[in-house]
Amino acid sequence: MSFKSFVMKKALRLKGVSKDQADAIADKMDNDPQFAETMKSLQGNKEVKELFDKIQKEIEEKKKSGMPEEYAAMNVMTKYKAQIAKHKDALAPLFALMMGK
User: Fold this and answer.
1) How far apart are the first and last CA of the chain?
2) Rounded distance, CA 49 to CA 46, Å?
3) Domain ranges of the chain
4) What's the rounded Cα separation, in Å, for the pair 89 and 49?
5) Which of 15, 26, 34, 77 could bond to 8 as cystine, CB 3.0-4.6 Å?
6) Using one digit for the tens of pLDDT, what is the confidence trace for 88-99?
């Protein structure tokens, strides 16, 4: 495992990403330069970044109030379904990875 991969996994884990997803994302970033470029472009997309920061913050708030993480994520993602759909083409590689494809 490269140092870059190690750091990425740790950073993803600190952001609340599951170990399996963090491993999958880091491995995909290491092995697929096209995927890495796609993720960089998402990071540069101010609208998408703000949306996901907002989603993450709301999920964390719900978790702190005692709601299980899965329910909190479903609840918040449903709330922002229209905004996520607006960016579906840009987010497709990330969602495919999250679904294990």
Assistant:
1) 22
2) 5
3) 1-31, 45-101
4) 15
5) 26
6) 888 887 777 666
Cα separation, 28 vs 47, in Å, equals 24
pTM value > 0.85: no
Taking Cα atoms as reference points, which of 81, 14, 8, 18 lies closest to residue 51?
A: 81
What number of residues does the chain have? 101
pLDDT score recorded for residue 64? 94
* Cα 26 from Cα 13, distance rounded (Å): 11
Q: Which residues contact 54 (CB under 8 A, 6 or more apart)?
A: 80
Kindly report the backbone phi and psi dihedral angles of residue 2, in degrees, each rounded to the nearest multiple of 5, phi listed first: -75, 160
